[in-house]
Amino acid sequence: MKTVLAVLMTAFLGVGQAQSIVGTWQMTEEKSCLASQFEESDTEKELLQSFGSSSSAVAKIIKFDPKGKGEEGIFKTGKRRSGDLEAFRYQLSGDELQFLDKKSGIIKERFVIDELSSITLRFHRVGKECEERTFTRVK
Asked: Which of 36, 43, 54, 61 yields a CA-CA distance of 20 to 30 A from 105?
C-alpha cells in the first residue's frame, strides 16, 4: 500500500512540475563558467556602471507549451514577432529538463532545474553548475 501511495505521489509531483513550466519566460540573468572563474577588475566595474541602457531593448524569450514543444528566440521592442525563433521539443524527468531532437526524440541537451516557482525558472547544464540561466515568467 505504501508503495502504491509513493508511486502516485511521484506521478502527481511530475505532472505538477510539467504544468508549472508551461508558459513564456524571459531571461533575466545568465552566468557562464568563465565569468565565475575570474573576478571583475576595477576598470571593468567602472565601465559597466557607465554603460547606459540601449535605445532598442531586446529580450531572450523561451516558451514551453503543454504538449512538450517550445520556442526560443530574441525579441526586439517594436517588433511583433522574432525573426529567429528556434523550435524544439522538451520533456521533464524529475528535476531534469531535457531538450530533444525534433524528429528522432533523442536527448540533445540536459539541464538540472534548480528552482521552479510561479515566477522564477532557474536551471544549469548537467555537469556545469557554473553555467546558470535564470528566467522570469512573462505569461
From this structure: 61
